[in-house]
Design goal:
Number of domains: 5
Strand order of the largest sheet: 3-2-4-9-6-7
GO molecular function: beta-mannosidase activity
CATH topology of the largest domain: Jelly Rolls
Helix content: 10-25%
Number of strands: 45
CATH architecture of the largest domain: Sandwich
EC number: 3.2.1.25
Shape: globular
Strand content: 25-35%
Enzyme class: hydrolase
Largest sheet: 6 strands, antiparallel
Radius of gyration: 31 Å
Number of helices: 18
GO biological process, one term: glycoprotein catabolic process
Family: Belongs to the glycosyl hydrolase 2 family. Beta-mannosidase B subfamily.
Mean pLDDT: 87
CATH class of the largest domain: Mainly Beta
CATH superfamily of the largest domain: Galactose-binding domain-like
Length: 1031
């Protein structure tokens, strides 16, 4: 075919999404003889999985899901079934697809590539029995050139064969060859995982099951072309200076033989789709790019990049900024690049589209002007468009153990589970999501969703809790370089991507485990990376930052690991090259020395980010200490809780009915199976017994764990937001709760359970992340020095003699706000109340403001009976014990000083809660619940704690976890494993609650919007009546 004809061959992209079959590998026959094995009906009883090919029920596909759909394995999310499916990950599996090429078979001079967006994990790929790829990395996409002789012409069928091998067995073989290393605690799966580039949570984590998934879990596409657009990247240079224009430089990478007379047309549209600029340019002359490597080696598509091929500039007034949620608009501009022939009768050869946002971003680590309780140190905050922001958000783990089940699979799936999760985060007031390093590189939809919803992304590279190989294993380093380039190129254009991070808790292990340096390599006596506590330092300190610096323009901030801090070497700025505004030139070795490891730290609250696990884990502190802990940026912390009652029922539903009641208690074997946290019973006992009465029955116990989690998370957020005190005093700049989501039904740290049912903690955090908030801290004074929580009233060896209140507000806007504070107090044992107002309060912009400090807590006067015996002494009753404030609930509300609109509310209850007798026999709050349409109105005559409203099931179905039928019989569409196929409004029982788990005080009705309730009745639970009842 002539060159002219070749240049006019438009790209054809054909998804290979049908005609897929799978089977277990039969080790008794040669591999290609497997292609001659007949197909069979998988529903046939006891059909051997290695004896026939079975039709895939969907594509992309995973073996576990195929086996589940065929009912050949039990649901591993129920009962103890996880342990009955371990054999799946230890076998080899085959997938095949047959397709007729039709017009896809190219004439001479035209090229074909197969694009594999995700293979899990070790997979040899054959096209018509010719090997074209040996994949070994779940995190990479592979684009493989196909020699023309490999592809058969119509009508002959082509056969694509995928041979998947066992990742855990290969991992153990690599471990036997290279040595056993430390890799997290015993809860985190086998340490051999560090040798394999596969999602680390597949080996088990302290919130997830051990399920070694396998299969083509993302799309496979055949591209045929003469020339095609391999990649586009817009370098968006936004400016915060009014006199400096915004600039967009578009890089275009072209694969194939563009030839003469071929160019690109670049068009930029505004957020409404109107054309802002369009420019056509000829491609600079370049020779055709041929792949001449040996076919036995891994091949990839060759392309040539034309940097800054088109440049657009705009005055400040012409562009709308992209802002995080809550700060402004998420303005996304459409960028379209067309590759085609130039001249009169132009032909479009290929086109790609993406969205860009105009924003600046920095990770600011400047010396603080003042000291806090920890000292001075440096800041660690995110600045967007010149505005320093307090980041409230969550840690993200993969949304399912089976990744294919997170994507829409039928026409009625308007929204995937991933989008539903992200909307929950945005609706919960969150501004940042941290993609944790033990998971996967998420679907494209995840990042596009963050762009659209205004969720900044802190992105760990895929390393977690392990001593990963370093220079001693060159093949591993080479693979990491390829992987990192692949990942960064795929994601770098998203305006939501704020921070690249080297991984999760890898450096922390060096200090946590007191590891010793590995032996010095005698062949490289001066190479610090061959005598190191952490061989993978070469990855975190050189490879990753160098690639991020090379491929992102302007540079995306890079942080070596999480947690991590270093005064000597700030961890944000352009890797390599000239110094940035913080004086960093991108070099590391002087700051990271094994001889003096204290030049970096993972637990110093004065520098970098920190993981605060001394509540629940570590020192086992109570959550009442969160305000004393903190740090410059708390990127992990959390307290676990049970999932919601219907989710508990799902876990129990695979157990025989006669045994279900026996397992329906908090210390049952089935609860242990679905609680992966180390020492969970002891740790729950410490936190629960300190603050709550010991509960019988799993539903009551679950409620208490959820309210405890809500109290803990709310207190953490209010305390650390309080520490954002203005310029030079950014003592804590963010908090990311561990964790937003679950990958299976489990007792975990998640604030929303696996079925997208928000727990009370979700709403506690949401209330703390509103633009204007008000909070109270109660300090109880005891009669002598002690180590008890400051908030707790004591009735034993110590006695509580008084209590004082701190009240502060937070203004998350850029303008000051004039407000009025209403402070009210209510006694739980009498009709005594107290209300006072404070006018003229000014909330400073973008920081916390102290309103009242050390104010005596209002409380009722003592009765004559209480003072009778004391009056026989010296007549001074100031030291009477205990103070009557031990039964007083304090409420605070903020009103706009001009409009009198309610801006924020909070309440502070006397702690510990176990001393409050709120049982129905002793305490009637006069709770009123009125349901109308999609609203629920709550009010009370006396204070009520933790009112949780949920959907009531139909009459005659169980209302508590231990009763009656399995939940799958109550609501099949919500509980079945493939519930994701339903429309998006079925997620989380089909109701989006605007608020929940609220505290009520007299005279302050609260209205909850329950979108999707659709006339259904509701169940209500609250402290004192923890088992839900229908109203």
């Amino acid at each position: 075919m002539s060159t002219a004809a070749s240049t006019t061959f438009p790209v054809r992209s054909r998804p290979l999404s049908s005609a897929w079959s799978w089977k277990q590998r039969d080790q008794n026959i040669p591999l290609f003889d497997e292609l001659n094995v007949a197909s069979a009906d998988l529903s046939a009883p006891n059909a051997p999985l290695g004896s026939a090919w079975f039709t895939a029920t969907s594509f992309p596909s995973e073996v576990h899901v195929e086996l589940l759909n065929a009912r050949r394995i039990p649901d591993p999310f129920k009962g103890f079934n996880e342990h009955n499916v371990q054999w799946v990950g230890e076998k080899e599996w085959l997938y095949k697809c047959t397709f007729v090429a039709d017009g896809d078979v190219p004439p001479s001079g035209i090229r074909s590539v197969l694009e594999f967006e995700g293979l899990d994990t070790f997979c040899d790929v054959y096209l018509n029995t010719q090997v074209i790829l040996s994949a070994s990395n779940q995190f990479r996409t592979y684009t493989v050139p196909i020699p023309p002789t490999y592809l058969l012409h119509s009508p002959a069928p082509n056969t694509l064969l995928l041979h998947f091998k066992s990742a855990p067995l290969i991992a153990k073989a690599l471990e036997a060859k290279h040595g056993v290393v430390r890799a997290g605690s015993v809860n985190l799966g086998d340490p051999s995982r560090v040798y394999v580039r596969k999602a680390q949570y597949d080996w088990r984590w302290d919130w997830g099951p051990e399920l070694q998934t396998v299969g083509p879990f993302r799309p496979i596409t055949l591209h045929t072309y003469s020339a095609r657009i391999a990649d586009i990247y817009a370098r968006v240079y936004a400016s915060n200076a009014e006199d400096v224009e915004h600039r967009v430089e578009v890089d275009v990478s072209v694969a194939g033989n563009a030839g003469k007379g071929v160019g690109v047309t670049v068009t930029l549209n505004d957020p409404e789709g109107n054309i802002l600029r369009s420019e056509q340019v000829a491609l600079p002359s370049a020779s055709a790019l041929e792949d001449t490597r040996d076919t036995s080696e891994e091949k990839s598509e060759e392309s040539q990049t034309f940097p800054s091929l088109v440049t657009f500039t705009f005055p400040q007034s012409a562009i709308r900024r992209w802002w995080p949620a809550g700060w402004g608009e998420q303005a996304l501009y459409g960028l379209r690049v067309e590759l085609g022939t130039l001249g009169g009768e132009s032909t479009t050869l290929d086109a790609k589209e993406t969205c860009i946002g105009f924003r600046t971003i920095r990770l600011v680590q400047d010396p603080l002007q003042e000291a806090d309780q920890h000292g001075k140190g440096t800041s660690f905050y995110v600045e967007v468009n010149g505005v320093g922001m307090w980041m409230g958000g969550s840690n993200w783990i993969p949304a399912d153990s089976f990744l294919t089940l997170t994507r829409p699979t039928t026409t009625n799936s308007s929204t995937s589970r991933i989008r539903a999760w992200l909307e929950l985060a945005r609706d919960g007031g969150q501004t940042m999501i941290r993609i944790w390093g033990g998971g996967v590189i998420e679907e494209r939809e995840f990042y596009e969703g963050c762009d659209e919803l205004g969720l900044l992304v802190w992105h760990d590279f895929p390393f977690a809790c392990g001593i990963y190989p370093g220079p001693e294993l060159p093949s591993f380093i080479t693979e990491i370089e390829k992987e990192t380039r692949n990942i960064v190129r795929r994601l770098r254009g998203h305006p939501s991507l704020a921070i690249w991070c080297g991984g999760n808790e890898n450096y922390q292990q060096v200090l946590q485990w007191n590891l010793s340096p590995s032996p010095q390599d005698p062949k490289k006596p001066n190479d610090p990376f061959h005598s190191t506590l952490l061989p993978a330092r070469i990855i975190h300190e050189h490879i990753l930052p160098a690639i991020v610096g090379e491929l992102t323009h302007p540079p995306t901030p890079y942080h070596p690991d999480s947690p991590f801090g270093s005064i000597a070497c700030p961890s944000a700025g352009p890797p390599g090259g000239s110094k940035d505004s913080q004086g960093w030139d991108g070099t590391h070795p002087s700051a990271f020395s094994d001889a003096d490891p204290r030049t970096w730290d993972t637990a110093d609250p004065r520098i970098g980010d920190i993981h605060q696990w001394d509540v629940w884990a570590g020192k086992g502190l109570l959550y009442t200490e969160y305000d004393k802990m903190g740090g410059r940026f708390v990127s992990e912390f959390g307290v676990p809780s049970f999932p919601n009652p219907p989710t508990l029922q799902y876990i129990l539903s695979d157990i025989a009915e006669e045994k279900r009641k026996q397992e329906s208690h908090a210390q049952s074997k089935i609860i242990a199976q679905h609680t992966r946290a180390g020492g969970f019973e002891r740790r729950f006992a410490v936190l629960m017994n300190e603050g709550w009465r010991v509960a019988e029955g799993v539903e009551r116990y679950a409620y208490n764990t959820q309210i405890m989690q809500a109290e803990a998370m709310g207190y953490a957020y209010q305390s650390w937001r309080r520490a954002w005190k203005g310029p030079g005093k950014e003592f804590t700049a963010g908090a990311l709760v561990w964790q937003l989501n679950d990958c299976w039904p489990v007792v975990s740290w998640a604030i929303v359970d696996y079925f997208l049912r928000p727990k009370p903690a979700y709403f506690a955090i949401k209330r703390q992340l509103q633009p204007i908030t008000i909070n109270i801290f109660r300090n109880v004074t005891k009669n002598r020095a002690n180590d008890r929580p400051r908030q707790y009233y004591e009735f034993g060896a110590f006695q509580s003699i008084s209590a004082s209140l701190d009240v502060w507000g937070f203004n998350n806007t850029l303008v000051s706000r004039r407000v009025t504070l209403e402070l009210a107090a209510y006694d739980l044992t009498s009709d005594w109340t107290h209300i006072e107002r404070h006018d003229g309060v000014i909330l400073s912009p973008n920081q916390s403001t102290e309103i009242l400090e050390g104010k005596a807590c209002p409380c009722p006067a003592r009765s004559s009976a209480e003072t009778q015996y004391h009056s026989e002494g010296d007549g001074d009753d100031s030291g009477l014990k205990p103070t009557t404030s031990h039964t007083v609930v304090v409420s605070a509300r903020l009103f706009d000083a001009d409009t009198h609109a309610l801006l924020a509310r909070t309440s502070d209850w006397p702690q510990p809660f176990k001393y409050l007798d709120l049982s129905p026999d002793n305490y009637d709050p006069g709770l009123s619940v009125r349901v109308g349409g999609d609203t629920v109105k709550l009010s009370a005559k006396r204070p009520v704690k933790g009112v949780v409203v949920s959907v009531a099931y139909e009459q005659g179905t169980p209302t508590t976890v231990g009763d009656g039928e399995a939940f799958t019989e109550v609501d099949k569409e919500l509980a079945k494993l493939n519930f994701r196929e339903g429309p998006s409004d079925t997620f989380g029982d089909g109701v989006k609650w605007s608020d929940n788990a609220v505290d009520l005080v007299p005279g302050d009705e609260q209205v909850i919007i329950a979108k999707g309730l659709r006339g259904r009745r509701v169940r209500v639970a609250y402290m004192g009546r923890e088992e839900g009842h229908v109203v």
